[in-house]
From TrEMBL:
It holds the Pfam family Aminotran_1_2. Residues 31-380 form the Aminotransferase class I/classII large domain. This is Aminotransferase. It comes from Limnospira platensis NIES-46. Its EC number is 2.6.1.-. It is an enzyme of class 2 (transferase). One of its GO terms (molecular function) is transaminase activity. InterPro entries: Aminotransferase_I/II_large, AspAT/PAT-like, NHTrfase_class1_PyrdxlP-BS, PyrdxlP-dep_Trfase, PyrdxlP-dep_Trfase_major, PyrdxlP-dep_Trfase_small.
Length: 388
């Protein structure tokens, strides 16, 4: 079977093998602790579930407009207008099957062969693959703990060439949990405006912040930059709605129109009754978001203290999302070998940093119980101790 060249260049996910192994071990009855998940461990809040059930009962079961239910687009536009301070209207919004779909559809709409897309590493693992699937060229810009894994204006400027079309920014970040400060965003926005490139700001973790960190969209940091900014977000993380597949992209209406054309010939509208769940999510009450954030905050505190007490590994304190990105460079194992051995010897599933572009790290998710965190971190300590 000859497959299309575009798919041949996309590798199998390095996380897949580990999660399959963890599942198999669990099925055998082993006590596997899972720190590899990228989703909240909470159920979707009841009022959101109820709204979708009501929509089903009311017959909201038919095709809808490709770009999304008008009311949902309005609500998203209104909340962004408040948050960013720039006027968004419904025609600046497309509702998609998740943040992942927003980003991949955006790439399909604006990237063509020869276009370069700047992606700071560590990066969320799907960004480079999406660019390749759209025939573009990912340009990876390595960052490290010295700048809290954030790209600096100098690094961005150096990476820009006449072929650069897009810069991918993710704050709060998966996998590092880092949050860009307003000054850092302002400085990056200056480079974006001067160079005329587009920026996609993946803000899917914008509600999950700690210790007073504030979310600011790069779109709000410079009077001109919003014209070049696309905001990608969704309901999965802040409202515990991962399986609903609900996201959106906001920005220039020509780009939104192009994405809508693609969507109309590929997935059509997002599940109609699911969109009524999203409407309820935005209409509130919003205390469910805060309750989940507080639970994450407590787990973050415990995990960070326990991690920092383990000699030989280190972690920059995260201020958002629900991940810790741990440097294992002193242990002398590549990240895939490290994660495999940790799973086999200690029944602890984590994600190798290789998946995010840095092989001397592993990612731990704290979307799990405090008890699991306490037990798991003891296991990690024993594992590391035996190897120093
Ligand atoms: N962006 C980032 C940084 C993510 O971590 C995720 C989910 N893992 C997504 C986008 C996509 O989220 P979804 O498609 O579930 O909305």
């Amino acid at each position: 079977m000859k497959l299309a060249a575009r798919v041949e260049q996309v590798p199998q996910s390095v996380t897949l093998a580990i999660s399959a192994k963890a599942k198999a071990m669990k099925a055998e009855g082993l006590d596997v602790l899972n720190f590899s998940v990228g989703e909240p461990d909470f159920d979707t809040p009841q009022h959101i579930v109820a709204a979708a059930k009501k929509a089903l009962d009311e017959g909201k079961t038919r095709y809808g407009p490709a770009a999304g239910e008008p009311k949902l687009r309005e609500l998203i536009a209104r909340s962004l207008t408040q948050e960013v301070g720039i006027n968004y209207s419904a025609e600046n919004i497309i509702v998609t099957n998740g943040g992942k779909h927003s980003l991949s559809e955006l790439m399909m709409a604006i990237i063509e062969a020869g276009d370069e897309v700047i992606i700071p590493s560590p990066y969320w693992l799907s960004y480079p693959e999406m660019v390749k699937l759209a025939d573009g060229t990912p340009v990876i810009v390595p960052t490290d703990a010295a700048t809290e894994y954030k790209i600096t204006p100098e690094l961005l400027r150096q990476a820009i060439t006449p072929k650069t079309k897009l810069f991918v920014l993710n704050s709060p970040s998966n996998p590092t949990g880092m949050v860009y400060t307003p000054d850092e965003l302002k400085a990056l926005a200056q480079v974006v405006v001067e160079s005329g490139i587009l920026v996609v700001s993946d803000e899917i973790y914008s509600q999950i912040l700690y210790d007073g960190a504030q979310h600011l969209s790069i779109a709000a940091t410079h009077p001109e930059v919003h014209k070049q900014t696309l905001i990608s977000s969704g309901f999965a993380k802040s409202f515990a709605m991962t399986g609903w597949r609900l996201g959106y992209l906001a920005g220039d209406k020509t780009i939104i129109g192009a994405m809508t054309r693609i969507q109309s010939h590929s997935t059509s509208n997002v599940c109609t009754f699911a969109q009524y769940g999203a409407i309820a999510a935005l209409e509130g009450p919003l205390d469910c978001v805060e309750t989940m954030r507080q639970a994450f905050a407590e787990r973050r505190k415990v995990m960070y203290e326990l991690l920092n007490a383990i000699p030989g590994i280190s972690c920059v304190k995260p201020y958002g999302a629900f991940y810790m990105y741990v440097n294992i460079g002193k242990i002398g194992l590549g990240s895939v070998d490290f994660c495999n051995a940790l799973l086999e010897e200690k029944q602890m599933a984590t994600v190798p940093g290789l998946a995010f572009g840095t092989d001397d790290h592993i990612r731990l998710s704290y979307a799990t119980s405090l008890k699991n965190i306490e037990t798991g971190l003891k296991r990690l300590e024993e594992f590391v101790e035996g190897r120093l």
